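Need a sequence for this fold. Nothing fancy.
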């Protein structure tokens, strides 16, 4: 199978190149950029010298069709909205890593993203690519909307509780921290080294664009969740997300062991979700460079509150790794193909 990447010069694109290089079933044939055409990708990313020296090309669906069967869109919001339909019409399969096709309601997208939404027919065609909860639809589609990094960590940590009606759905609080690479490759005052080093910031308080995606996912796969409180923070590290999730239990008879068994049963056929033993909680370094989501659960009898700790690598399970997992399911390959990496540690 031949693949192309649009938006190859971003961090998500770089990880897609790394993963496709070692994929046994897929060959990366072309890389595309709207700003750096005509230069080798290894000039943008010197670590690829001698490994991948493809020349960055313009974005033309017909030319891409001649070189590829499947296209990854690792682009900022607003690009996929305009080009995904053209790529589908050209006969290509599309995996979109941007947020353009994640929200079913275009008006909600416009409210939170500040951009014009994709047309309704395209939104209806796109399958939300959270493999652990949407495996069958992913296997049957030609257009996948890859989930956001924060929603991936949050939904995997919350859905077993919401689906089984174990928590008060109005009590959910998500306290999430992300590495700086989640802000993208373009420098800004927020991510400048002297601003971020030895610092810890909260940002987009009650305004983060992933809030409606999390709420949509909880209602899509779980139950009626009217809202969540979602706070995001930047941590001075390169990769990783930790979502610490709090919700009030609906029963005072639940035990920590029962919660762990529930999560293990829910994810028993999910090769990239690992549930920690009682009293053990994951850290971001333990999933670094991999497609794993590690989850720890506890129950505080004193407060009646359940706490879930969910960690991922934001560029892997939160972006490129999950996109490859979706590719595998879409094309009928082994779900773990090209993703069997041991975490880089320390």
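Here you go.
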């Amino acid at each position: 199978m031949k693949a192309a990447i649009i938006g190859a010069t971003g961090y998500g694109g770089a990880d897609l190149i790394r993963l496709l290089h070692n994929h046994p079933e897929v060959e990366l044939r072309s890389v595309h950029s709207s700003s750096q055409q005509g230069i080798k990708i290894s000039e943008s990313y010197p670590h690829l010298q001698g490994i991948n020296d493809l020349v960055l090309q313009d974005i033309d669906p017909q030319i891409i069709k001649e070189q590829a069967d499947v296209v990854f869109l690792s682009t900022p919001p607003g690009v996929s909205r305009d080009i995904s339909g053209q790529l589908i019409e050209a006969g290509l399969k599309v995996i979109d890593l941007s947020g353009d096709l994640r929200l079913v309601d275009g008006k909600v997208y416009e409210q939170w993203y500040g951009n014009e939404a994709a047309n309704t027919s395209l939104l209806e065609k796109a399958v939300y690519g959270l493999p652990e909860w949407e495996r069958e639809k992913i296997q049957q589609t030609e257009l996948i909307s890859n989930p956001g990094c924060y929603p991936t960590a949050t939904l995997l940590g919350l859905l077993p509780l919401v689906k089984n009606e174990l928590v008060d759905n109005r009590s959910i609080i998500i306290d999430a921290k992300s590495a700086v690479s989640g802000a993208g490759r373009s420098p800004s005052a927020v991510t400048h080294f002297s601003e971020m080093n030895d610092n810890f910031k909260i940002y987009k308080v009650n305004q983060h664009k992933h809030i409606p995606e999390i709420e949509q996912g909880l209602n899509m796969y779980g139950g009626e969740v009217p809202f969540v409180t979602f706070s995001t923070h930047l941590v001075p590290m390169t990769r990783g997300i930790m979502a610490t999730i709090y919700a009030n239990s609906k029963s005072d008879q639940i035990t920590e062991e029962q919660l762990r068994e529930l999560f293990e049963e829910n994810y028993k056929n999910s090769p990239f979700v690992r549930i920690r033993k009682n009293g053990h909680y994951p850290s971001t370094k333990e999933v670094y460079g991999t497609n794993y989501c590690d989850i720890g659960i506890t129950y505080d009898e004193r407060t009646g509150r359940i706490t879930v700790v969910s960690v991922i690598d934001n560029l892997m399970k939160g972006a490129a790794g999950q996109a490859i997992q979706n590719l595998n399911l879409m094309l009928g390959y082994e779900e773990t193909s090209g993703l069997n990496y041991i975490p880089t540690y320390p």
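For context: The CA atoms of residues 155 and 259 lie 16 Å apart.
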